[in-house]
Design brief:
The protein is built from 7 helices and 7 strands. With 208 residues, the chain is an alpha/beta fold.
């Protein structure tokens, strides 16, 4: 089976160089994984990836992203930046946020988005690798408030594949839009740990 890996378009925020990208790309591919789908050529977006049921998700995800050379911005607790991890967090692309108030958190993120010419905010909508009762709506409200498209990614452990499933544009009506997003995931994912799959994704598996 040929190994598949995308090329990053020019408008997407980038990191690394040809040497680092080639190194991480080969490390990712040598584990038998591939990356299916093309990155949409947009400078700003909210990127979501599911399912999240294992620490291995982060391993394969970071290898793939470093191999592609995309710069994702990840949300992290502001208190972490008062620790020796500060420089590592800055390098990875974590931005400090105060999670005490949901409304204030959204405004912090919107402010950061407005300051950047290029930025992709990466969010795991299940919020935890353990079994979640629902999909958290924060990613949606951030995307809609900032007028950004949502780029949809999935883990498919059965086929050792990370998939880019394209763009979704919000309407402001969360519940119907969430149904449409979940429809996009139908048949495009499989978890590392089935027992930790969130309930909405479990229902998709049953439909399949």
């Amino acid at each position: 089976m040929p190994q598949i890996f995308p090329t990053l378009p020019d408008q997407v925020p980038q990191r690394g160089n040809l040497i680092s990208r080639q190194f991480f790309k080969q490390l990712y591919l040598k584990q038998g994984w591939q990356f299916v789908g093309e990155f949409p050529n947009v400078p700003k977006a909210v990127a979501i990836i599911t399912p999240h049921t294992s620490n291995y998700d982060a391993w394969y995800g970071f290898l793939a992203l470093l191999g592609v050379g995309i710069k994702f911005t990840i949300l992290g607790k502001a208190s972490l930046f008062n620790t020796p991890l500060k420089h590592l967090l800055n390098w990875v692309g974590v931005i400090p946020v105060n999670r005490n108030h949901a409304t204030g958190l959204t405004q912090q993120i919107l402010h950061r988005i407005q300051q950047q010419d290029k930025i992709w905010i990466a969010i795991a909508p299940e919020g935890t690798r353990k079994r979640a009762e629902k999909i958290k709506s924060g990613f949606y409200h951030i995307a809609h408030a900032a007028k950004l498209p949502i780029v949809i990614f999935s883990f498919d452990y059965d086929h050792k594949t990370i998939r880019c499933l394209g763009l979704f544009h919000t309407t402001g009506d969360y519940e119907p839009d969430l149904i449409k997003i979940l429809d996009i995931y139908q048949g495009q994912f499989s978890p590392k740990n089935v027992d930790w799959l969130s309930k909405p994704l479990q229902k998709l598996c049953k439909k399949g």
